[in-house]
Design a protein that fits this description.
The structure is a single chain. The chain is 71% helix and 0% strand. It is mainly alpha-helical and 253 residues long. α1 crosses α3 and α6 packs across α7.
Length: 253
C-alpha cells in the first residue's frame, strides 16, 4: 500500500485487514465448529453490507463500503471466506489441485481485488492474479511451514510427499527427509514458473494496475532464502527488512 497511488492506499489496507481477519480465525478458535460460525458471520456481514446495513465491526463495515465504492467482486470476497474452511478442518493439503484452488481463492483473490481498487480489470488481471497468487502463495506457505506444522497443519500436497516416499506425518514429527527436500525444490520451481508468467501479464497492465502486484517483488528473494535454509521445518526463511522495502520501491514487472 505504501508504494501504491495515494488515493487507493486506504482501500488496499482495508483488503489486507479483511484477509488478516479471515486468516486468524483458525488460530483463534479451538474448535472447527466455532471457526465455521465465524466464517458464516463474515458471509452474513457481506450480505448485510450489500443491503446498506452495518455490523459495527470496523473491518467488515469498511469492506462492505469498499465493495460499493469500487464495485468489487462479491464472488471473490466470498471465495476468500470459503477458502478458509480448509484452515479449520482438513489441516492436510491432499493434492496439488487442492493447493492451487486454495491459493487461487486466497492470495490470487487478494491480488485481483487489489487490482480492482486500482481500476484494473479484465482477462490480463485475472491471469496475473491467478499466477501471481500461485507464486506468492506457494512462497508464503513454504516460509510458514514451521509455524503451521507446530499447529498440526501441513500445506505441502500429500500426493507429492507420498510420491517421494515421505508423508505429512513426517513433517508433523519435525523430520525433514530427502523426500521433503525434493518436494520443496519442486514447489520452488513451480513458484518461479508462475512468477515469470505473472510478470508477463503484469507488464501489459497500465502503471496504476501494476501497483496491485508489487508484493511479487518479494517472491524471488524469499525463494532464494528458502533455497539456502538448511532447516526448513524449524526456521522461517527471511530477508533483510530494508532490502524488502528497496525491492518494493524499485521492482519493475
Amino acid at each position: 500500500a505504501l508504494f501504491a497511488p495515494g488515493a487507493a492506499r486506504g482501500d488496499l489496507v482495508t483488503l489486507i485487514a479483511f484477509n488478516v481477519e479471515l486468516a486468524r480465525i483458525a488460530e483463534q478458535t479451538s474448535e472447527p465448529d466455532l471457526g465455521a460460525i465465524r466464517l458464516q458471520w463474515w458471509r452474513d456481514a457481506l450480505d448485510k453490507g450489500a443491503k446498506g446495513e452495518i455490523t459495527g465491526h470496523p473491518v467488515a463495515d469498511a469492506v462492505t463500503a469498499l465493495m460499493a465504492r469500487r464495485d468489487l467482486s462479491g464472488e471473490r470476497l466470498g471465495a476468500m471466506i470459503d477458502a478458509r474452511a480448509f484452515d479449520l478442518t482438513a489441516k492436510i493439503m491432499p493434492d496439488q489441485a487442492a493447493l492451487e484452488t486454495y491459493l487461487q481463492d486466497t492470495a490470487g483473490a487478494l491480488f485481483a481485488l487489489s487490482a480492482e481498487c486500482l481500476g484494473a480489470r479484465g482477462t490480463l488481471v485475472d491471469l496475473a492474479a491467478a499466477q501471481g497468487g500461485l507464486a506468492y502463495g506457494l512462497t508464503g506457505l513454504m516460509r510458514a511451514l514451521p509455524v503451521h506444522a507446530a499447529r498440526g497443519r501441513v500445506d505441502l500436497p500429500a500426493d507429492m510427499l507420498r510420491s517421494q516416499s515421505s508423508s505429512p506425518e513426517e513433517i508433523l514429527a519435525g523430520k525433514a527427509s530427502e523426500g521433503v527436500s525434493v518436494v520443496l525444490a519442486e514447489l520452488r520451481r513451480k513458484a518461479r514458473e508462475a512468477l515469470e508468467e505473472a510478470r508477463q501479464h503484469v507488464a501489459a497492465l497500465d502503471p496504476g494496475g501494476r501497483a496491485a502486484f508489487l508484493p511479487l517483488a518479494l517472491v524471488e528473494p524469499y525463494l532464494a532464502a528458502l533455497e539456502s535454509e538448511r532447516d526448513p521445518l524449524h526456521k522461517v526463511a527471511g530477508i533483510n527488512p530494508l532490502y524488502r522495502l528497496w525491492r518494493l520501491a524499485t521492482w519493475r514487472a
